[in-house]
Amino acid sequence: MLYQIWITYPNGWYYKDGDVWGGSYTDKYEARMQIDAITGMYNSGIGRAHALEMRKRWGARTYYHSYAWMFYLYNNPEITPVDKSELGRAEVFSPKLHGLVCWRDSWKADATAISFKSGDNCDHHGTYDAGKIQIYKYAPLAIKNGHYRGYKSSKHMYYKSAWSAGVVVFDGPRAHGWQPF
Description:
Blueprint: H1 2-6, H2 32-42, H3 45-58, H4 71-74, E1 90-93, E2 100-104, E3 112-117, E4 133-137, E5 140-142, H5 154-160
Antiparallel strand pairs: 1-2, 2-3, 3-4, 4-5
């Protein structure tokens, strides 16, 4: 749940990575159910605050229509929201593997959010480019494009690689600095 909260920009868009590049991938339909379920399991005021922000942002339709009935199962209005500023301004997720670093100047609607990858990626749907940085202020400012059409196409494989992010790559003597595809 905390990962999902940290990678959501103030406007409800997610951190752009891998398959979430097709348009603006938001927390509108498929994310609230998980937030509500975990909020209830851990009695999390932070999760409750995030769920209420989602409702304010998108209205009542924050559950995917096929799962709307689960709202009555997972939503717990008795949990008191806690201000997300309690989370602090920096977090690192999976420091020994993915190494996703998230910084924010605040948790307000006009926040600046900076995130970068500093580790490996074992996710088939993500991108493999350690060093990729994204800066958000009202909209993505510094960002690497990753939209592709065609699974395993040359464009798909290029945007999954570190070569597309302008990072230093140490690839060994056999590759001679060439892209692997």
